[in-house]
C-alpha cells in the first residue's frame, strides 16, 4: 500500500469499490469541487458495471450467460482489453478467470462482510497445489461488434485491474485542471508534479506491520504505483489461512514466499496487473518477470526483507530506518 505523508493540496475522499478513495488536485478550490464530483462519479459508474458482488452489474450478467456472444459497454470492453493484454504479457500469472476459485477459497462476498463471517459458515478450502488447475478455454473478443464470448464454466473477476483502470481515467480528467493524484485504496495514479515539487511525495508502507512504518519514499509523476499483498485481505478458512490472490496454475490462494509487491508503471491497470503477477510468481520468478519487463518494482518477502529491481533503485528517496535494515540495494538485480 502507498500513501502521501502530508497532503497540502485541495483534497476529496469517499468510499467506492470496497476501498477508501482520495483525490488531490493542485488547482484553485473553485475548480476542484466540480472535477472531484465528476471523478467520483466515474468510480460509482465503474462499480455499477464491473462489481462481481452486485448481481445486477454488467459483469455479473456477463458471467451468468456463458457460451454466447455478448455486446459490451465501452468501459467493460476497455477493461477486458487491458486484462487480455496483461494475461498475455505475464504468461497467465495474471488471470481474470479465477472467480470460481476465489469463491471456493471463501471470498464470495465483499471483504467487509467476509471479515465478519464466522469460520464455521465457510465452505471447505481446497488443499493448495493438490492438483493443477485445468487451463481454462480462452475467451474471445470481437472488436468489430465490441462483444465477448465467454466459455461455459468460466467467470471473470476484474477487481484490481478495474480499480487501476478507473483511477487512470479519473487522473486523466483531473489533469485537465492541473497536477493531480488519485489514491484508489492505496494504489496511486499521478498526473504532472505539483507546482514546486519534482513529483507527488508518496510513501510505500512496510507490509505486515501495525505501526504504519514506511519502507521507502519516492516522487510520483505521470505514473502509477500499485501494491499487491497477502498481509491485509486474508482470513481463516476452516482453520487454514487464506487470501485473495489466486495462483491461476493451481486455483488456490498463492503459496508465495512474498508478502507484497509494489510496481511503478506508466498506467494504473499495468501497475495492478504486474504487481499481482509478480506476487503470485514468488520472489525469484517474480523478480525476473519485472526485470525482463524493465519495470520498477519492490518485492518484500515473508521474512520482511525487500528486493528492488534495477529500475526501482534510482526512484527510492529518504529510506526509513526499516528500509536501511531490510532493503537489498546490491544483489537484488542479479537474483
Question: How does this model look, in words?
Answer:
- The protein is α+β, with helices and mostly antiparallel strands.
- The protein has nine helices and 19 strands.
- It has one domain (about 1-335): Roll (T-fold).
- Helices cover about 30% and strands about 25% of the residues.
- It has a nine-stranded mixed β-sheet with strand order 2-3-7-8-11-16-17-18-19. A three-stranded antiparallel β-sheet has the order 1-9-10.
- α1 (about 30-50) packs antiparallel against α6, α6 (about 160-175) packs antiparallel against α7 and α7 runs antiparallel to α8 (about 285-295).
- It is globular, with a radius of gyration of 19 Å.
- It starts with a strand and ends in a 7-residue tail after the last strand.
Short description:
It is built from 9 helices and 19 strands. With 335 residues, the chain is of the alpha+beta class. Strand 7 (180-184) and strand 8 form a beta hairpin.
